[in-house]
Amino acid sequence: MTLAIKDFFVPLLFFSSIASAATVEHVFQVKNVVVKPLCKEQMIPTVNGSLPGPTINVREGDTLVVHVINNSTYNITIHWHGVFQLKSPWMDGANMITQCPIQPRNNFTYRFDITGQEGTLLWHAHVVNLRATLHGALIIRPRSGRPYPFPKPYKEVPLIFEQWWDVNIELLNLQPAPICDAYLINGLAGDSYPCSKNRMFKLKVVQGKTYLLRIINAALNTHLFFKIADHNVTVVSVDAAYTTPYVSDVMILTPGQTVDALLTADQPIGMYYMSISPYISANSLAPVPPGHDIRSLIVYEGAKSTASPSMSLLPSGTNAIPTAHRFSSNITSLVGGPYWTPVPEHVDEKMFVTMGLGLDPCPPETTCNGPLGQHIAGSFNNRTFVMPETISLQEAYFYNISGVYTDDFPDQPPMKFDYANFSVRTESDYEMMFPERKTSTKTLKFNSTVEIIVQNTGIISPESHPMHLHGFNFYVLGYGFGNYDPILHARNLNLVNPQMHNTVGVPPGGWVVLRFIANNPGTWMFHCHMDAHLPYGIIMVFIVENGPTPETSLQPPPSNLPQCTHDPTIYESPTTNVDLSS
Ligand code: C2O
């Protein structure tokens, strides 16, 4: 079944200098197609048959309407990563938190306003690993008549980084998951991979012109460095929040992060590689393939096709962590720029949250592949989040249905320990290794200011994790290594021009301090944006209470919100371990 609505967006605003809002409408046909980025054909779920999926272009103030038609064999939700969803919490697309999934042969229409934010975001599926192939750019430009807070670029270019497995996508659910086979830039693996020599993303530039690169890390599990040979770029926005212009020759993006950067073609006419490479912050449980950089190319107008491109040297080994830290921690927000607001000084809710991996006891008579023969788990404050199974958490909250979750998420870990250098010395240390499995939430008063210190633990591995908050941007007041010191480190937090993000990489064995204003009633996930860590339960859910008026209160769900019914023909994650080597 298909709807007779074409993919389109409405450029109404060209005719008017008065800022008025348009409705931008898309149809997302989710269907399985065969693609071949490397040497083998694979059947993958896609939106409208393309990898990456369609780019959505809107202006700030527009209403976005997306009709999702699920013609795939999978349960689907689509999440609008970084969109505030102010007054539209039912449209967040967080599977089992704000809705049950759209089942095969079913439809659902997402409809929401995009207000108070500009820049580059992404949309992606929010069900198990399906975002590997179901993702695309979501570009929010200023209302007509409003300029960018930087010189107008000659052209704008989305650059989407993706992670590719040359196996059936269902195998990604295995524990341990298979190692990925490649990374793609705008769907292409480039000339450093077999069978892909002539399939490389090429950006044609005119010498002297300036381009706005809209860069998205849509990889499932890997932070990526990005570098252009012989060129610096100027970062002007991260996660759709404007920054002080920041000149750099290299950048890092965690899964889910975006960067907008100006690139001026100011070098001699020629060809220059634009490359990405994975960032290994610590011994990782989801190993990345060794070897080469992943390349795309800048081609200057007039360049000889026989010229050999300039190479870029990406950070690796001992300079990886300092390079990542320098780029991440040097970004500041554009004070006085569009949508900038000063950091609230008074904090109403202060949380200290330990975050990282742990273990879940291996059930009797089974073998488990995790460390010490156990299952791997993850935790916030020693709790592993368990997803609701029969109804979404937001519906359970709205209808006051008991037994789905408990509102008792703790503001502190159950005990103090040497977080970053964990080792088992006492009986109670074992407890920190085996977190408690629970569906627990933390309730916040409407409009309260929340500070979260996220402390990465060294339990199992101290690797960097990207923390993503649905429904809000947060200020990042500081980043550091080791254990957070509430006196020493608190003194040096940036309360003047801290960067704003929806996703932040917690340094390996380190911490970040975040602050946000809980101004949007609903239930909002806060989780690790490494997809492999979602089933480990590195997830929290905030419930933001209603404000004083109907306008500031959670409204009933749309009448056609998908319901959870069990259909055994639908693909679900395997619960047993399968040996991949056979
Ligand atoms: Cu981009 Cu909850 O995710």
TrEMBL record:
Keywords: Apoplast, Copper, Glycoprotein, Lignin degradation, Metal-binding, Oxidoreductase, Repeat, Secreted, Signal. Its cofactor is Cu cation. Belongs to the multicopper oxidase family. Coiled coil: none annotated. It catalyses: 4 hydroquinone + O2 = 4 benzosemiquinone + 2 H2O. Its EC number is 1.10.3.2. CDD domains: CuRO_1_LCC_plant, CuRO_2_LCC_plant, CuRO_3_LCC_plant. This is Laccase. Residues 1-21 form the signal peptide.
